[in-house]
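Format notes (please read before filing issues)

Several people have asked whether sequences and structure tokens are stored in separate files. They are not. Every record keeps both together, in the order shown below: the sequence lines, then the token lines. Line labels are part of the format and must not be stripped during preprocessing.
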Amino acid sequence: MPLQRAEGPVFKPHAKRDPSQQGPDVKKSALQQNVKPSRQEGPPQSPVSQNARDPSKKDTKKEHRQDPGKEPKKPKHPDAKHPGAKKKKPGTEERVAPPWSLAGFTISPEEIARFEANPESLKAYGGIKGVAVCLRVDPSKGIDGSPNDIQLRTDAFGPNTYPVKKPKIFLAYVWEALQDETLLILICCAIVSLVVGMTTEGVSIGWYDGGGISFAVVLVIMVASTSDYQQAQQFQQLSDQKRKISINVTRGSRRMKVSIFDLVVGDIVQLNIGDQIPADGLLIEGHSLLVDESSMTGESDPMPKDEDEHPFMLSGCKIMDGFGDMMVTAVGMSTEWGKLMATISEDNDEETPLQERLNDLATTIGKIGVGFAVLVFIVLICRFLATVDFKNFNGTDGKTIVDYFAIAVTIVVVAVPEGLPLAVTLTLAYSMAKMMDDRALVRHLSACETMGSATAICSDKTGTLTMNMMTVVTNWVCGRLRKSIEIDPEFVPFVTQTIFQSVCMNSNGNVHFPKNGPPEVTGSPTEQAVLTWGMKLGARFDEIKKNCPVRGVETFNSTKKKMGVCFTTPDGRTFVHWKGAAEIVLEFCSHSLAPDGSSVPLDPATMDELKLIISSFANSALRTLCFAFRELSPEEIAGLTPEGIKANGLPDSNLVCIAIVGIKDPCRPGVPEAVARCQAAGIKVRMVTGDNIQTAKAIAAECGILTPHGVAIEGKDFRVMTVQEQYDLLPNVDVMARSSPTDKHTLVKRLLEMGEIVAVTGDGTNDAPALHEASIGLAMGIAGTEVAKESSDIIILDDNFASIVKVVRWGRSIYVNIQKFIQFQTTVNGVALLLNFVTAIASGEAPLTAVQLLWVNLIMDTLGALALATEAPTENLMQRPPIPSTTPLITNIMWRNIIGQAMYQLAMLLVLHFKGYSILGLTDETPNVKTGKTYREEELQTIIFNAFVFCQVFNEVNARKPDSVNVFDGLLTNKLFMYVMFFTCGIQALIVEFAGDFASTVGLNWKMWLLCIVLGSVSWPLAAAVKYIPVPDAPFSTYFTPWNSVPESHILLGEGETRIWWCPISRGNQIFRSCHWWRNRPGAYAFLPESVPSTSD
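Then the structure lines:
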């Protein structure tokens, strides 16, 4: 069917116009033209100016001039000439039609962009309907939606995307790694060593030391930059996941979900409360629509939208209330939001609290390392100066000083634990990727680790604990309780039509009837259940919607818990229909509908009977809805203006009850087990729902949330309590039913004030305050609105509570993995520093060279982080209490393990260094001309180096289980750990056997190899023995800072006494950082969390 011309002007694409006559000022020349889109396949041909000539004619004139052996070039544009055509003089070229004109559209993006700034230009086009004609859109059916049509619109108006800042190339990460000051100093040392060595010893020998340092530095830089580059790539992939949003559009009369990036100009988009507007557009139809435009205009108050005065919808803004349909008029870079986003790049340099603590720890360790390095260098230089012959000072002596300085700098490199930030980055990236596999998308990195400390989870019911697959299973209609889903034969036509109208009109869902196949129902799960019930009863959704024009709408929200619609029937009568929570809507009813169409008064007995029916439905874990209506009087009809509805709402008094339905939403499989695991892990799970309290209690009992001693409370009772009463009650509250968004926010706030780490789930716009207030906000990926997702820290992609428990496991594993790495690295650091320090003072030389220390640094930093930071969480993590955020990074158990291993390694290596010749029987004193050392000196140095490395290899296995004797549990399942172990051992063997003078090593025989491995393997039985040594519960630091540990029982107040206490107080797993002042009776003990307002009561 050809599209009809709009009453407004349709512009001829290439007609010459005066610049001052753009937009609504264009008069006759625009009004006299009517360009109809072609019906042929492909882009329709567009009219061009009178100066244009038919390109096909020009081509045929020149065809015979083409070389028959060459294929003629294709023109770049239908209006372009062939290469053989003569060129025109400048200023006489033909105008090329723009893409939108070639596609058959009769309005340009520039004209559309002027609508908001100049609303009169919209009227000049005939309003929204005229623009729809220009864009070839049927507002009721949407665009054609065929692949050809989609491509045509994309080519004409562009895609709904914006340029994303290109990620840094690999060389940029190499350059960043080169900015490390200690590595730059080492590079300088390498250069000086190369120059001095090759000058004094010749090129063939003198390059070894400098070349070895250079190679080791390059290796460290490449490993670090490769790791950073890979992590950046992974974070970029996760960022791409965050931007994936699906929206409802109408195409070819069918409502469907498409990606926000697949949106095209002309699409009809369905917008609901909580949605983010995906593109610029014009409102076709809206009901009680309020839009938050603060992100674009800075206006904090929500703006009301309607089809007449304020139809302009801006991309990036959010729907705060109501629902409606919008026609897309601009996408991607044609929108203001797209232009803004093109200038913004997402910042992945977010630093989590754990990273901040680790950076502080690394700084402290680094300072200690610098101190040791300075002492070692001073001692070595002093001993050198005491023995050197200054009269015969030569290049070799200068090279010795350079070597000493290189050793000192290398000690700093080893001491500075750059592996700590790398480890936390690795474990966060690894955990985020694994959380995606477990259907959880992390928006804020800090939420990963905070989940490990969670002590309470406040969960929604619908869709999280239940499957969100709703079905009407029982109903009470017109005075009779029935299980069957069919219309009673005794119902008169008026009753049947009233039921159908109540189901179909009072809904923001939709039903599509395809030519072949069953009806397709879309909308929220509740709407789908009700509409499906109506279809089974025989309702014809499309016919009822078409025949009953809507006069006004009140949308559903979680505060009112009901929604209403006012419409006129084909016989001219006007009705208002209400639907919502059964007991709430029933309170507004004074009559019930009888099968013969009459209204029967609801006496107290009947009202009690209906409440009993609602209670029985709820006790069977059914969600209950009540349908009611009444006819409006002429006076009420006269008040149905937009202003009147906005001020007073739709009439809701003296309603006639039509039906009460029970909707079954079964509990999700695996939820009871997941709840039990949370409870075993010391996490209190609470259900917070807007449902009936009986329904909530039934589902909570089925899920295992409602315990025998637990309390179920309604929001209206909770909100009238005093703050102290809420504190006293909350530890026992398992269920809060009929809660408003304010109740949920208050609940979260009180729990935080009590010292809890609270995770909250939410899906609606009104959940945003609670999600933002909580320690961790968990938005639902399926049922959640864009507003809820924007306020959250983690998005649960499958809306499943069991996925939340997996997130808790990963959160705990992050902290535990970091502690494993800290234990491993601190041991290596301590031994390397003390070994070089003691030997430098005692013998004037360091047993480990710069190259060897750099290899050790690589083992303990990058490779150690890879091995330990990617350990998968184990089930025993969920058998421990939550980890408080104030827990020391190095616990007493870790100190015990570190001290035990360090004492053994240091003692063993010092014995080898001072008594190795006699113990091992090393007697070969053949000199090495290249290094100036004897063979036995080089062999002992190699043995010390080899034994030290194997101690770290075996201790790395110990670090996997800091508090378990069996360190081999699950070892073979971690393939990356095994790869790192084999890689380390392989490279170590190559260095010892083949590096030679380059790494100051010599090949060892099998006995010495076996000795080194045995000395390293002693770490295993030693670790098991050390773990039987008891340690106190209080951190070691409290014994050195007793003022930081004031017991709660010491806070004693006298009669009328006012004191200010400022001290940390611990109670179980809860940490109260400070106390406010208060008065109390004599001898009373009291505490008050920091965030509780101080009172004088």
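For reference, the curators noted about this record: The first strand starts at residue 246 and ends at 251. The chain has a mean pLDDT of 79.
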